[in-house]
Amino acid sequence: MLTGSPGCGHYALALALAQYLQCTSPNGEDSCGVCPACHQAARYVHPDIHFVFPVAKTAKIKDEPSSDDFIAEWRQYLTGNPFPSLEGWYHAMGVENKQAGIFKKEAQDILRKLNFKSYQSDYKVIIFWMPEKMNTTAANKLLKIIEEPADHTLFLFVTCGTDDILPTILSRTQLIKVPKIETGPLLKKLAEDYPGKEDLILGVVQRCQGDYLVAQEMIEQSDQNVLNRDRFIRWMRISFGLQIMEITDWVGEVSEIGRERLKWFLQYALNMIRNNFLMNQGLAEIAIMDNEESAFSSKFNAFIHAGNIEDLMKEFDLAIAQITMNANAKILLTDMSLQIHRLLRMPAPGAKG
Ligand SMILES: [Zn+2]
To answer: Which of 176, 195, 282, 334 is packed most tightly, with the most Cβ within 10 A?
Structure first.
């Protein structure tokens, strides 16, 4: 039983061990990476490496599901990214809001698979991801085989926390705590996965606690921030100038980013408006912004003042609420652009004009 944080690499470690056991010419420390068995293992199609993971009913699978029903999706999901997360897997399975589990049928499948002679090699390996999602019925069916597996049968459990694992299962395993990923290998992997982002990666590696999934989240978040910043700056410029063609283009693009991302963007925009108001009021030091945001705001803040801040914030609050309730994004953003134009043109209280 390998335990560690979700992105500590313990799944990748289980895969590597399974491949090593199947490799026909291992070099003592690692698999060769080139023999047919290694190729099959690397593509997750080796006949003696079995995968178990939480699954849920879908429109396609209406009876009690088991991993075999989703093996194509699982292979696809792992390709290039052997760091599964429950959230990512739900998304790949297309079951956003359902509880996935490991059920009785899974246990039956495992017993059936272990009854066959192994196809090519001595070892049969079961890589069992998230045993904490296994229900009691399934667990009871597997107790005996986990306690006394046949020769050359290896259960590799991979878990993010042992608290929720049934004690009857846990007590039959040998617990190995997998440490966080060291800086060197993590830097190398991230540089491969995110070329051209070396500066960002250097910072992320310091803060991600040796967890690949945390690092990935930080990088993607930062990408979103850059996108949101550029969208916001462009929006304010073209709305202020009432550049109708540009506004139409911008609305066309931004209305396509998806409801969740649009909500984040509007939240970001609201925060920028608030920060500009703080700057306008001489409170720049409590407005947290990056260099590019500050550069834009050093001029823009003159247009966000006591005369329009309340109406502007109301516009954004209302828009976020309406997007949540499935309003038409194109109509909403077009209307907002006109309102923003009107509000930005309002004179500041006390200003000559
Ligand atoms: Zn090999």
So the answer is: 334
